[in-house]
């Protein structure tokens, strides 16, 4: 991570604003279309007040805009730093190879852990729509009662998903991969980049060390049976050598004993 210059900050700001604007526009259009379609289909949505409908539309625009702005920021960082992009591509390739060896349940768990915040947002929207549909079928509730009941259902489901995401985050923190650990690494990288040139580590050397270590780990993982076979052969050869040495020692001891006996016999005669 490097400190941005004023020109890079301006370019990053333009990229984030552009991505957020496009995402907000798409979210508003999608939210408006969803509210209009739901108003034609469901009586509860049709009876909502105008501020409530506007809130649903603007919430969709805000949600999509935030995600689009975040993606635009990450894309700018990837395009600016070629070395970091290479590392991310390498990590992504290793990640795909790792996922290919995992079972379906493990892949699903890994995907849920990586996309937990998107799942929370989508679950919140889906729970609101689903709860409105479920409560709207009850003819004994008024419109306001249906809204309150649907909101309770949506909040309960969203809270359950947030608890699951918190469990994933705690598990990631124990492995040193949580959000706090990532932010700490970012602060350390920023502090390092602000150090004088003679105190700064050689980033290219670190990059090449990481690349070599990753490729070695990849080769070891790919040829793991071969390495285990070679290690087994080396251990067997070492054991055979030890046995031969012990046999030679025993033969030497026997020869010495025979010589001693012959010497004693000659002296007695």
Automatic annotation (TrEMBL):
UniProt keyword annotation of Membrane present: yes
Principal location listed in the UniProt entry: mitochondrion
Pfam family, one: HIG_1_N
Domain of life: Eukaryota
Basic and acidic residues bias spans: 219-244, 258-269
PANTHER family documented for this protein: RESPIRATORY SUPERCOMPLEX FACTOR 2, MITOCHONDRIAL (PTHR28018:SF3)
Name of the molecule in the record: Mitochondrial hypoxia responsive domain protein
């Amino acid at each position: 991570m490097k400190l941005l210059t004023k020109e890079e900050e301006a370019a990053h700001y333009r990229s984030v604003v552009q991505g957020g604007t496009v995402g907000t526009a798409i979210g508003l259009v999608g939210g408006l279309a969803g509210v209009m379609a739901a108003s034609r289909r469901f009586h509860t949505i049709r009876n909502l007040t105008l501020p409530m409908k506007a809130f649903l539309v603007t919430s969709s625009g805000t949600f999509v805009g935030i995600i689009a702005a975040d993606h635009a920021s990450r894309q700018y960082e990837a395009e600016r730093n070629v070395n970091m992009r290479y590392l991310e591509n390498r990590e992504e390739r290793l990640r795909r190879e790792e996922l290919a060896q995992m079972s379906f349940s493990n892949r699903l768990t890994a995907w849920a852990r990586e996309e937990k915040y998107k799942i929370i947002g989508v679950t919140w929207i889906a729970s609101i729509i689903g709860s409105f549909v479920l409560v709207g079928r009850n003819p004994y509730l008024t419109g306001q009662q249906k809204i309150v009941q649907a909101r309770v259902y949506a909040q309960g489901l969203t809270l359950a998903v947030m608890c699951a995401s918190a469990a994933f985050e705690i598990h990631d923190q124990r492995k040193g991969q949580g959000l706090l650990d990532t932010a700490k690494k970012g602060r350390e990288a920023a502090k390092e980049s602000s150090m004088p040139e003679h105190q700064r580590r050689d980033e290219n050397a670190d990059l090449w060390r990481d690349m070599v270590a990753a490729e070695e780990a990849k080769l070891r993982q790919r040829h793991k049976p071969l390495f285990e076979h070679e290690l087994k052969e080396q251990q067997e050869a070492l054991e055979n050598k030890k046995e031969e040495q012990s046999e030679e020692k025993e033969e030497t001891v026997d020869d010495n004993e025979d010589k001693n006996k012959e010497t004693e016999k000659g002296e007695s005669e």
